[in-house]
Amino acid sequence: MAVLFEKTKLLTDKQFHYCPGCNHGIIHRLVAEVIDEMNLDGKVVGVAPVGCSVFAYDYFNCDMYEAAHGRAPAVATGVMGPDTMVFTYQGDGDLASIGTAEIVHAAHRGEKIVTIFVNNAIYGMTGGQMAPTTLIGQKTTTSPYGRDEAWCGAPIKMSEMLAAVPSSYYIERVAVNNTANIVKAKKAIAKAFRYQKEGKGFCMVEVLSTCPTNWGMSPVEAMTWLEENMIPYYPLGVYKDKEAK
Predict the structure, then answer these.
(1) DSSP secondary structure letter of residue 131
(2) Which residues contact 110 (CB under 8 A, 6 or more apart)?
């Protein structure tokens, strides 16, 4: 009997701990499928810091390191070797706040790593506090009346910021809110890993994601909110691709 669909071997059989409607499961699968389909099994090491994906080492069927909060790029720098490819898997509270210096300077040094940046515009693991990526007017546990630009500034756009770093090589923002965008997201992740395999510079794929629990919405409502609010502010597309120029 022909096999039409099967689970990628780069994910373990352990059940995800994520909340219902969380997009981490989709993103995990896309990363694992790319590693599997590119025959990179045994060559790739992942680094996950503190955050909702802190237990990523239980799910990815490859060697994984656990880094301190925000320090995944620094750990990835130490892991890199001539026969080793490295990816980091980071949330927005981790990468865009606690680990801002690490990610900026990893890009500045042109480190040959792939960063999967999951942006759900909130601190997910620690209770739903306002993050640097929280949208204007968005309510969180630390901005119950909505983020006020006059007091808190505008949300940071990490893809645009890192695209401006001269040594970064490939930066793209995607989403996984529908089938078409999931296909585009997988292509972006595959391109990042291909560039790394070819020895290019720093690559990052930002994935817009939902957080139904901390947003106080159902999974379906959260997907709609992402499409109507996050994508207009964080437009999808390629922000830097040196090879395409």
Answers:
(1) -
(2) 167, 168, 169, 201, 202
Q: Which residue has the tokens 């890993």?
A: 193
Cα separations in angstroms, 174 against 22, 153, 185, 206, 212: 16, 24, 5, 6, 19
Q: What is the pLDDT of residues 130-155, one digit of tens each?
A: 999 999 999 999 999 999 999 999 99
d(C-alpha 91, C-alpha 24), whole Å: 10
DSSP line for 32-48: HHHHHHTT-TTTEEEEE
- Three-state SS across 55-76? CHHHCECCEEEECCCCCHHHHH
Task: Tally the C-alpha atoms within 13 A of residue 153's C-alpha that lie toward its C-beta.
Answer: 6
Greatest distance between any 2 Cα atoms in the chain: 63
Residue 131, φ and ψ in degrees, nearest 5: -110, 170
Residue 8's pLDDT is 93
Q: How confident is the model at residue 245 (pLDDT cuts 50, 70, 90)?
A: low
pTM of the shown model: 0.96
